[in-house]
Design goal:
By secondary structure, this protein is of the alpha/beta class. The chain contains 12 helices and 8 strands. The protein has an 8-stranded mixed sheet with strand order 3-2-1-4-7-6-8-5, sandwiched between helices. Strand 1, helix 1 and strand 2 form a beta-alpha-beta unit.
């Protein structure tokens, strides 16, 4: 066995089933990898989760909530020397494991390409159109910000243990990746190792994501006043970023027609302005 795939899960059994279907369809031989589903005590209960897994993975129940603790527990239970991480709502393409392992030969840890999954049979919502243009730009994260999304991550177990666990209550993939690079580990990009992630379906779904991300980045700023002020100061750049990033919407090959582009532009402006307000709520300890 060459690789253990760690899949954190909470309360989304249909998505977990799709993820396991995709992992069963991998071009890597079935005896070369195992799958560990680290479940955060989903409310449906262990038997319901096990029924969806249907023998396609080992099931761990991890009472401590959060994808970070679930991933840590999955690594601790892994039988293989290589760890691959994806999320239960993701759909890895068939060559994901094979391509990720191939790329890992040249690096200490690897992040693959992310795609945004949208139902093609209906018009895109504003949230979907926005995410089609702006979400999951993993190549930029790797090359410019020194982290990879944890939904598409490969490393050896030895490297993971040397870097240390994912920490809860922060932007865990950002912090873990930057910690790895700071320790001297080489992070590479594998464009052929592809994982699809569903777009957020509507404004409320998108807002839920960004409420969490804003809180995580605020926590990462820590208690140092200077760092906190710099974090707040970045929010003042957000209104100008609407103008700067609007051309990306207008020329995007993934958006078709004026309706989709207008929906994406409207969501871009609405979200960036909301983030300015939310940054002040967090900084001053106001109710969100």
């Amino acid at each position: 066995m060459r690789v253990t795939v760690v899949v954190p899960h909470f309360n989304d059994l249909p998505a977990l089933g799709r993820c396991l279907d995709a992992l069963q369809a991998q071009t890597l031989p079935a005896d070369a990898f195992e799958v560990v589903v680290a479940d955060n005590a989903s409310p449906q209960g262990q038997e319901a989760v096990a029924a969806v897994i249907a023998g396609r993975a080992r099931l761990l129940i991890v009472p401590e909530r959060g994808a970070g603790p679930a991933r840590n527990a999955g690594v601790a239970a892994a039988l293989a020397p290589i760890i691959a991480f994806t999320d239960s709502d993701c759909v890895p393409e068939t060559e994901w494991l094979e391509q990720g392992l191939s790329a890992l030969a040249d690096w200490d840890l690897i992040g693959g390409r992310m795609t945004v999954l949208i139902d093609p049979t209906r018009p895109k919502t504003g949230a979907e159109a926005f995410e089609q243009v702006f979400a999951f730009k993993n190549e930029r994260y790797i090359r410019e910000e020194n982290f990879t999304v944890s939904a598409n991550l490969f490393c050896s177990r030895a490297v993971f243990e040397a870097i240390g666990p994912f920490y809860p209550a922060i932007s865990e993939d950002v912090e873990w990746g930057q910690r790895a690079v700071a320790k001297g580990y080489r992070l590479g990009y594998a464009p052929a190792a592809v994982v699809g992630h569903p777009a957020r379906a509507d404004w409320q779904d998108l807002l839920k994501k960004w409420r969490r991300r804003m809180l995580e980045t605020h926590v990462m700023a820590g208690s140092d006043l200077g760092k906190r002020l710099r974090w707040l100061g970045t929010s003042y750049l957000l209104p100008a970023s609407i103008v700067v990033h609007a051309p990306r919407v207008l020329v995007s090959p993934d958006l078709h027609g004026p309706r989709e582009k207008a929906a994406a532009l409207g969501t871009l402006a609405r979200l960036r302005l909301w983030r300015v307000v939310d940054a002040h709520r967090l900084f001053f300890g106001l109710r969100r």
